[in-house]
Amino acid sequence: MKLLNKFFFDGRKTFLKGSLIFLFFFLITRLPYLVYYPVNVLSNDSASYMTAAFSIINSLTPLFDIRTPGYPVFLAKIWIFSESIFTVSLMQIIFSLFTGLLLIYIFSAVYKKYSVIFACFLTVYMTSSYFLVLESALLTEGIFTNVLLICAALLILSLKRDRNIYLILLSVSTAVLIFIRPAGMFFFGIMILLIIFFIIKKYGVLKYVSLIIPISVMITGLCIYNYTTLGKFTITPFGEANLAGVTILFMETSDEYPGFVNQAIQQTLDSIPREDKSFVRKYHNLTELFTVFKNSFEKQLEFAGNLMGEDSTKKYMDIQPYMRMVSMDAIKKNPGIYVKFFISNFFFFFRNLGIEVKYFDQIIHNYKRNIVDRRYIKELDKKKWLQISSDRSMNEKVKEFLQKEINLQQQLKFISATGNGEVIVQSTFLKSLYESYESFYNFFLRNIVWYLAFFAAFAFSIYILLKTRYKNTDAAIAFLICMIFLTKAVMVSLVESSLERYSYTVEFAVYFSIPFLLILIDNYKILKLNSNKV
Predict the structure, then answer these.
(1) For the chain, what are the domain ranges?
(2) How far apart, in whole angstroms, are the C-alpha atoms of residue 175 and residue 188?
(3) Rounded to an integer, what distance in angstroms lies between the CA atom of residue 327 and that of residue 157?
(4) Is there a contact between 42 and 363 (Cβ–Cβ < 8 Å)?
(5) How far apart are CA 71 and CA 179, in angstroms?
(6) Do 485 and 510 form a contact (C-beta atoms < 8 A)?
(7) What is the DSSP letter of 36?
(8) Is the pLDDT of residue 318 over 90?
(9) In 3D, which of 165, 151, 341, 167 has the Cα closest to residue 244?
(10) Distance CA 201, CA 190 (A)
(11) Helix 473-495 and helix 450-467: axis angle, to 10°?
């Protein structure tokens, strides 16, 4: 026990110890993919990122009507040198490695006594099967999660070291986070709370300038670009599509809408089971409500396609005002159903930590979907609008790219498909080692019991902040880290279905609550000691 206590808490060689723990488990969990099973992980969203990336590579003016520029620029920079999905996955893995070591270094600098504990829980977070699957996917999560971790680390550093350069870096990183995925706008809530903390601490104007100006300039620049290319001063106009997904079960036709809009609404509603539309109006069971809402959410794309109809000249921006109008009217007419949507999704945002995923099940699923079923090639052949881009000039290029990737994937030695479409994964030592780790992980660490520590740290941070008149820095940091999780939960539940891929991005806040709870206990002891002296 003394040896363990010395290893974790003596404050010596903390970066070395934390890095060794992190690197050991990082390699165990990444080597199976890198050595034997480099299967492409794609989704319905992937083609839209490819389209924008290829436009950038070909020196065209990309339209960011569907996607923000962060991830397409990342893809374009990589594909200039090596045009493959595996290269993207490899760079995302390298980015994760860099992020992990950077955070351990920052923890060692500001929380030396508990930095090894931080490193352990960072390792826990970054070796989950969700993290691994999405890290290798051609999706924004491959870099979004790492940038969010860097934002959290810079938040800690800027408060602990009280230097404006860290605030500037935090501001820039938050803008990059939003450029990668608009869902990063939830971090505005954290910045507002940080500004309130500055007001309480009576900081000078330079603090506010350092935090606000860089992100304001970057976001304004994106809005100006979108105004120039799309005619709309916005970060992204695609938010209306998400809101259409929220309201798809209770939107209604109206005499105030143009005929083609009513026709599109009716076509979409006719494709949804009647019992689902009536269920959300009559019942209140959270589990069943969540399932019904989730199953219908992607009908937003069908609704957009129905609005566009067969007119190949129509762009997303042509139908966007109608999507917003129909969605907002649906919420105004049925606020009770919208509240049900929010509550059920907010509840399941927390439930997601208890849901297990099997990594190799996901590998098999993706290989079958991408290679055997050729799903995304077939979708690009469809004539109706999909979530690609208003600029369809790159569709053939995307198809050619995906076909080339299919040919490469069919040559993999350790995963293949039989004549009847069954996917076979050959056993290896690394696969067995990973599956043993995954079984342990899913049993002990994908568990909602961890929320006990999370809410304890959250409540304790509020208590110490009140006790110190909102001036205790460690309590403020712990509170803000907890709020990262809660703010994301609120934002997602307002406009999206609470899928695991949305909640896992902030689950680090739950795991970090353990070391923060220990830090807050130390702070409480000091406060108690000082009060006794008085």
Answers:
(1) 239-333, 448-534
(2) 10
(3) 41
(4) no
(5) 8
(6) yes
(7) I
(8) no
(9) 341
(10) 17
(11) 130
